[in-house]
Each structure stands twice: as structure tokens, then as C-alpha cells.
Amino acid sequence: MQHQSLTVSIPVLHLWSRLLAIHKIGSLDYVVNQTPSFLNICTQRLIRWESLPVESEDPTVQFLVDDIDTIPERHAFVGNYRRYCSSIIEAITQKRPQEAVREILGKVDGNLDNLYSGVEPFSMHNFSKSSIPLMRADAQFAVVEAVIKGYHKWIEAHGKAPQKDEQERHGLEVAVESWASSLMQRSYDDPVIKQRIIKLVVDISSRALDNHPAFALKVLEHVLMTRLPDQPDFPVYAEAVKELHGLASHELRRLAIRYADYFSTFYDLLEPKIREITMANRVDDKLQMELTSILLIIMYLSRIILNLKH
To answer: Which of 138, 173, 282, 302 is a Cys-bridge partner for 264, taking CB atoms 3.0 to 4.6 Å apart?
Structure first.
């Protein structure tokens, strides 16, 4: 698995992604002892290798270009490789969430602190969706997505030892919520990184912390406040900003539908906040209608829920 050539390591990676899903094998002492090595390899290799320039000096990229001739085949191959890496992280998290969740999220934090290490700081002028910092961030968010999937599967199997599991679950929920809250406090100028953060925290809210409406309200506020000014002089950047605002509207609807009953109790705060955002950011008519529709969704669904309760 540690070989720098992805084509050499993928058979072993695939094998372990299958073996770790088998309870008897995943619980063996040898396998447990190898867990740090598995996590280290998989978290490092969730990069979109196919997006790196072919002239890169990275040995893994050089092997990839030499081993696979065509770009479509390269994309398909690397997609499978990342899927196996995610499966291993997911399986380890599901089997040992107490150790995996905190350890992996801690490492992700460290990596997010160093996205721009060794490269130029962010600039709208040379913005690119295949920049090194963005690919680094994407890899870290993919790691967290795999962790959340594994954690969610552990929750679904919850109940075999209710009291013990409940204590473990509460501790992990606190850890996940704390990490997600700190992620929302990070400041990035890259609109694509902002997109990934929004999608990730909404996923965490709906999957890992679905019984935490107060956290969902924090996420709602974060998404509402995530706005970047349009910069028509930089068309590539401006298009990414447009995509960011579109994604934000979509994720707001997801939250509004899921937590309408809870959000309705804060309607008097949300309504002026949304009006303030639309005025301050000079949003276009379409976006203004989408933001207003969030309020309508909250009120409409909350009334339906209220009627059902009676």
C-alpha cells in the first residue's frame, strides 16, 4: 500500500477495503495495530491526482502518467483509488469511532492550517479550481466525509449496549460538533473552499448531529453569512462566487426542510437577518426570491407539523 505508484498499491488497497468490512478480520490484533498506517496512507492519498499537472515532480504523478496513457482512464482509475481509501477510513471509524474520530479530525485541523504552505497566497487574479491549496482542502474534506459516513453507520448499529453506547455517542457528538463549529470559524477567500465547508457542515448536521437542532441553527447562520462580492473583472473567480451563492441557497433549503419546526421559533430573528443580508450584499432578484423562500418553507412546514401534533 505504501508504494508510490498507485497502480502497484491499488490491489492491496482494494483487498484491505474489503477485509476491514469483515468483523472477525477487522478485530484481529494485527489489523488493529496496522490501523495508524492504514489511516496515514489513506488520508494522504485522497488527493485528486489527475488534477495535478503532468509535469509535476511528484513521483506518484509521474508513475500515474507513465502507467496510464489516456486522461479518461486516469480519471476513472484515480476515482476508484480514492473510493477505496474512503472505504478504509469509513470502516475503521465505524469499528473504532472513539479513537478514529478524534485522531483523524485533529490531523485534518493541522492540515487545514497549512493549505497555503509553500505556495502563493490566494488571489482573485490567478484563481483556479485546480490550485494546490484547493486540492489539499478537498482531500481533507473527503477524509472528514468518510469519517462521518463511518460514524453514521456506527450510530445506526447503536443500541447493543445502550448505556455504554449512549455515553460514547454523547462524547463523540460533542467532539464532532466542536470540530464543525471551529471549521465554520475558519476564514478562507477561496469560494470553492467555502462551498466545500458549507456542504460538509450541512452534511454533518443532517447525518452525524441530526438530533442537534441548535447546531443546525448555527449552520444556518453560517450559510446565510457566507457571501462574497462579485468581481466581474475576474470571470473565473466571479463564476465560482456565483456557484457558491447557488450552493448556499440549496443547502439553506435542505436545512429549512429538515428543521422547520425548530427554526420557526426563531422566525422573528431570521426574517430581519435575511432582509439585512439581501440589502447589504445587493443580491439579484433570483437570489432574493430564494432567500425569501427559505422563510416560507420554515413557516409552511412548521404549521403542517403543528397540525399533525394536534
So the answer is: 302
pLDDT tens digits along 277-301: 777 666 566 777 777 888 888 888 8
Give the separation between CA 43 and CA 18, rounded to whole angstroms.
18
Q: Which three cell numbers stand for residue 84?
A: 477505496
Closest CA to 66 of 5, 22, 123, 122: 5
Distances (CA, A) of 144 to 1, 24, 76, 140: 21, 26, 22, 6
CA dist 64 → 12, 71, 227, 269 (Å): 17, 10, 38, 53
In this structure, of 16-30, 104-118, 220-234, 268-282, the range with the lowest mean pLDDT score is: 268-282
Among residues 184, 262, 187, the alpha carbon closest in space to that of 217 is found at 262
User: Are the CB atoms for 79 and 9 separated by under 8 Å?
Assistant: no
Per-residue pLDDT for 67 more than 80? yes
How many helices (H) and strands (E) the chain has is answered by 14, 0
Which residues touch 259 (CB under 8 Å, ≥6 apart)?
213, 216, 217, 220
Exposed / middle / buried, residue 291 (Cβ in 10 Å: 0-12, 13-18, 19+): buried
Report how far residue 194's alpha carbon sits from residue 189's, in angstroms, rounded to the nearest whole number: 8
The three cell numbers locating residue 266: 426563531
